């Protein structure tokens, strides 16, 4: 933890509620559980993990539910310090929080509750909530926001004096409550003892027949505990994912954050609104990214390199200094050497392109034989003619050249300095030998 929050909370438990089914996302069984849905190259829950990790919590509990085994397997690999708790059956957010606290029977301290489907969550948002919690003298602190149209979000209901009264879930709210513009972000800080008592008293007397965590907050207030609501700096950016429109909104927020961070670090992104740079991409200052470009997680781009427009770099791609990937070029798990170029309508998969090589328009590395992927090596200063098909595994030597529409088979390749043409390609004799043969024939 940092700042005031770090100094205030000697004991902090983080409860991550990540058992949602995501029924409004799709009926397809091919989708992963909601917490593991992809968002800019990483699962939703990984974004939450990164926001939570700097807080230095003494305990972290992740509540799983729908396809809990899948989430728990992910936790074991990516978040082993977190304790998984399975919620079966899934009886609401209050029930989930109660199960999580039951896993920490001796814990006394601050409890932070977050959701596993809020990928745009930032550490500073959580630090701000925790910093506001003790000064308010509150048994519970709610992070709230204001928007003209809160939609399906819970409303913050205040009394005549302006103090927090309760949270009205949209599905159970009256018309007057639905007109309230202050909404609940779903991020809370509690004191453990008061939260335990409030959770034990929850009922299922509501529209969904579930235990609401928001009712526990109302219970704390009814029992005389102080509940505070503090404003979030970017409340609309803290909304969870319930449908594909929510996913798109979350991606839009995070995409701009990521792109802005690269630009502040010296990367020229000529049109941020049409550029997608996923998480965990390394781009050196001095590189240029042109419009309608998609750069996947794990790519590395060196200074002076240029990408796009209308280009796609998939995971594992490396562009070395001064490399150029142009319009309608897709590159996957490949290294493009210093000053090498592939500027038009080309697919480079599982390839190594040497320094200064030029890959012409319409070139394809045929890297998949139906069972396995194979690599293509294009040597330094090689020239690959337009429309060439390189059937991997295959190698074009240093300074090698292929003619337009040549098909280079694995057993052939192109030797260093040689030229290959035709279908299937044949290697031409050196120019001096061809000239001598022509003289003899005449």
Task: Please explain how this structure is put together.
- With 442 residues, this protein is of the alpha/beta class.
- It folds into 2 domains: 3-238, Alpha-Beta Complex (Spore Coat Polysaccharide Biosynthesis Protein SpsA, Chain A); 268-430, Hexapeptide repeat proteins (UDP N-Acetylglucosamine Acyltransferase, domain 1, 3 Solenoid).
- It is 23% helix and 28% strand.
- It is built from 10 helices and 34 strands.
- Strands 12, 13, 15, 16, 18, 19, 21, 23, 25, 28, 31, 33 and 34 form a 13-stranded mixed β-sheet that branches. Strands 5-4-1-6-10-7-11 form a 7-stranded mixed β-sheet, sandwiched between helices. Strands 14-17-20-22-24-27-30 form a 7-stranded parallel β-sheet, with no helix packed on it.
- Helix 3 (68-78) links the parallel strand 4 (59-64) and strand 5 (83-86).
- Helix 4 crosses helix 7 (192-200).
- The longest helix is centred in the middle third of the chain and has 21 residues, at 244-264.
- The chain is elongated and about 100 Å long.
- The termini are far apart.
């Amino acid at each position: 933890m940092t700042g005031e929050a770090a100094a205030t909370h000697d004991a902090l438990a983080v409860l991550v509620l990540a058992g949602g089914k995501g029924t409004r996302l799709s009926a397809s069984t091919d989708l992963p559980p909601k917490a593991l849905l992809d968002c800019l190259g990483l699962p939703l829950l990984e974004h939450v993990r990164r926001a939570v990790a700097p807080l230095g919590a003494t305990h972290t509990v992740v509540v799983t539910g729908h396809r809990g085994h899948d989430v728990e397997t992910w936790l074991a690999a990516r978040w082993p310090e977190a304790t998984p708790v399975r919620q079966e059956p899934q009886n609401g957010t209050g029930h989930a929080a109660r199960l999580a606290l039951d896993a920490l029977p001796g814990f006394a301290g601050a409890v932070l509750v977050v959701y596993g489907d809020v990928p745009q969550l930032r550490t500073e948002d959580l630090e701000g909530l925790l910093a506001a919690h003790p000064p308010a003298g509150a048994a519970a602190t709610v992070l709230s926001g204001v928007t003209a149209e809160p939609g399906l979000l819970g409303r913050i209901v205040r009394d005549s004096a302006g103090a927090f009264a309760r949270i009205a879930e949209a599905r159970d709210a009256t018309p007057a409550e639905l007109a309230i513009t202050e909404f609940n972000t779903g991020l809370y800080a509690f004191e453990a003892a008061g939260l335990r008592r409030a959770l034990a008293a929850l009922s299922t007397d509501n529209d969904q027949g579930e235990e609401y965590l928001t009712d526990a907050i109302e219970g704390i207030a009814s029992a005389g505990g102080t509940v505070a609501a503090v404003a979030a700096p970017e409340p609309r950016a803290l909304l969870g994912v319930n449908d594909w429109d929510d996913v798109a909104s979350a991606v839009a927020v995070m995409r701009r954050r990521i792109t802005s961070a690269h630009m502040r670090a010296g990367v020229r992104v000529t049109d941020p609104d049409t550029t997608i740079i996923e998480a965990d991409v390394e781009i050196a200052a001095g590189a240029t990214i042109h419009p309608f470009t998609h750069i996947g997680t794990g790519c590395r781009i060196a200074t002076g390199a240029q990408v796009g427009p209308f280009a796609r770099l998939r995971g594992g791609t490396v562009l070395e200094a001064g490399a150029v990937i142009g319009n309608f070029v897709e590159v996957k798990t490949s290294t493009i050497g210093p000053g090498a170029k592939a500027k038009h309508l080309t697919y480079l998969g599982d390839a190594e392109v040497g320094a200064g090589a030029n890959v012409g328009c319409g070139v394809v590395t045929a890297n998949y034989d139906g069972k396995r992927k194979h690599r293509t090596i294009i040597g330094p200063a090689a020239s690959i003619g337009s429309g060439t098909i390189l059937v991997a595994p295959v190698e074009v030597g240093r300074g090698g050249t292929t003619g337009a529409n040549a098909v280079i088979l694995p057993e052939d390749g192109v030797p260093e300095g040689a030229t290959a043409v035709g279908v299937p390609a044949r290697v031409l004799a050196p120019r001096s030998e061809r000239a001598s043969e022509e003289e003899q024939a005449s």
